[in-house]
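S.,

As promised, the flavin-adenine dinucleotide run. Input:
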Amino acid sequence: MSSLDDLRAVLDPAAIVTDPQALAPHLTDWRGKHQGAALALLRPRAVEEVSAILRWATATRTPVVPQGGNTGLSGGATPDASGAAVVLSLARLNKVRAVDSAGDTLTAEAGCILADVQQAAAAHDRLFPLSLGSEGSCQIGGVVATNAGGINVIRYGTVRDLVLGLEYVRADGAVIHGLKPLRKDNAGYALKELVIGSEGTLAIVSAATFRLFPKPRASATALCGLASPADALRLLGLLRQSAGERISSFELMCDGEMGLTLDSVPGTALPLERRHGWYVFIELGDSDPAGRVGELLTDALAAALERGLLQDATVAQSEAQAKAIWHLRFAVAEANRRAGPSVSHDTSVATADVPAFIAAIETMAAERFPKARALFVGHVGDGNIHVILLFPRDTLAEQRHELGHAVNAAVFAIVSDFGGSITAEHGIGRNLTGALAKQAQPEALELMRAVKQAFDPLGILNPGVVLAQR
Ligand code: FAD
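Predicted complex:
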């Protein structure tokens, strides 16, 4: 009997997929940069089945690559090319187990699509604030495993700030029942904090309990045209004075990125009279229906215009206009995917350093990679800037690997000068294991290896992700 036959005894036939056509989409990543192979795709329906799979994987020493919506941008959900691993999809664990309106919590299984969880909270008149361009496909297990960020971090924090309790399955199959809706819990080491953001290398997330928030009753959305990232930060400072904690999103985009998006993604249009060097996307929200955030935003933008911080701005007058503005921001990843060979980064620096950081990258790119266009988009209020170096379409395939290495080294040297991070929200995945090994303090890396060893002594959980294999 092959080792998969042992699994057939404990899983229903639909849970084990070996058909090459059905497997294919699970063997490559969203950007199409990684191509792997696998023994099978496993699709359990319940946490007990996840546990059985991990007991089997431990007994047979089979590597397990957990996969959610497969929208990750670091290659962490793609198996290596050996074909030795199984891909573990949590998609069939897709129940919202509970919404507690009194306690403002929601418990969802790993396979729930993020947008469905947002809707489940809204149906109970609450807000689940995590919002990403991939929210129609990414899953709860994936967002927890990557500690995802998105456009509302400036107000509500990353996934780590939203998770109260976690249920996860250890490499040996033991289920850790940690779905406590507690706001305060100092009983021992903070294990769930380690699992959050561990990219499938420490445990399999099966469900999470999240904080919910009051649903905004009044909101206002604006798109602004500005001359520079420095003006964007000045605008943020000004807005903070009047809007305070009502600022839910404050996003920056350069004109090159705006042009790519407008040219390549259907249904996008610029709601300003002309193009500008930089753009800022703003969302304000207030749980008080009389919060008059529209007025507040219009007044703040008028003051900014007067001070010369802004060149132009439009405030959405309807939900449809607000959606159209956010469509422009969310379409960026798709525009970049279509644009040709590129090297992308997910860097963060202290928010005040963003203008100098962008200038340093621009100078480096012009000197070292004159054929590339340097593009910038990101969550500027969090200091999280995605840097994209876009190369001409005719860049030879055999050059791309070397270029990728050279660009990474140059960008990460600048990140290091600014005391920043090589990944703010996407994670290390397979893409950045070498960079992490170089950038992390050796003693910190040693601790990471010890944590990995404690959770997964046989190294079967997503090997080669986060920590390079030795
Ligand atoms: P996958 O891609 O399937 O997996 C991601 C990682 O998590 C892998 O390492 C995988 O092994 C692991 N994993 C998945 N499920 C589990 C589980 N149940 N248990 C343990 N490990 C697991 N990210 C942001 O943070 N902010 C953004 O604004 C943002 N915007 C995006 C926009 C677009 C258009 C796209 C395509 C991606 C964007 N991303 C963003 C990246 C991505 O959507 C997030 O990282 C998301 O959290 C991944 O979720 P997923 O379910 O697709 O996970």
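The CA atoms of residues 422 and 461 lie 23 Å apart. The mean pLDDT is 96.

- D.
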